[in-house]
Amino acid sequence: MLRNLWRKSFDCAASWSAPIAVGLIGALGCAPAAACGAALVLAIDVSSSVNDWEYDLIRRGHEAAFRDPELIDIVRSNGLRVMAMHWSGPDHQLVHTPWRALDTEADALAFAALLGKAPRQSFQERTALGSALERLTDIWGPEERACARRIIDVTADGVNNAGPSAAAARERLIADGVTLNALVVLGDYPNPMFFYEREVIGGPGAFMETALNFATYARAFRRKLLRELRPSLAALPAGDAVAARAEPRRPDPRDRRSP
User: Fold this and answer.
1) What is the pTM (predicted TM-score) of this model?
2) To 5 degrees, how large is the angle CA 81–CA 87–CA 93?
3) CA-CA-CA-CA torsion for 65, 62, 85, 78, nearest 10 degrees?
C-alpha cells in the first residue's frame, strides 16, 4: 500500500543518522512513495445535448461508482484526491466539488453522496472541450502534484463545437505529465468516439471507454474508473468500443427520450 510504503521509508530513514540515511535508504529498498495513488478530475459535460433525464443517469452512475466495494478498496489501499467540474460552453466551467482527499470508506461514501446530490447546472450551451481543458491546466496544487499520477476523466457525448480547439490545452497537460482519459456516450453522428480517440486522450496509460447510450452510462463509468485507478487494467479493451468501431450509428431517438 502506498501510504504504508511511505511510512516504511520514513521509519527506515529515522532509524539512521542523516548522512547514513541518505546513502542507505535506496539500498534498503525503502525510498519514499507518492503521497497518494492518483489525483483525479471528473470533467463532466453538461452542454445542451445532455437533457435532464440523461444528467440524472450520469449523476446516479457517479454516485454508484464511488460506493462500489472495489473502488473503496482502491481508496483504502492507495489514497485518492478527487474533484468534479461541470463544463459546457466557452465561458462555463464550474467546479462543484473542490479537491478533497479520499483515504477511507467513509471518505468515498461522503464523496459519492456529494456527486449524487450535485444539481444540474443550467448551461444551455454548446460543447467547448478546449475551454474546459484550458481551465484544468492550472488546477493542480502541491498536494495533487505529490500523487503518483494525475488524471483528467472527460465524459461527453459530442465533439468540440465551440471555443478553441482542444489541441493546445491537451498538449500542455500531457507535457505536464497529466493523463487524459475519456468516456464517450455514443449516439451522435458523426460518431464522437473517433474525435476523442484521436484528439483528446493522451499521456501515460491513456485510454477511452464508451457507453452505447445514457442507459448504460453507469456501467461504463464504473468500468472506466476501475481501469484508470488500477493501471494494470488500462490496456484492456473498452467494453463497447469494438461494436462502435464496426458500425458508427446515427442518432437513435430512444437514446434521448425520457421514460
Assistant:
1) 0.79
2) 80
3) -10
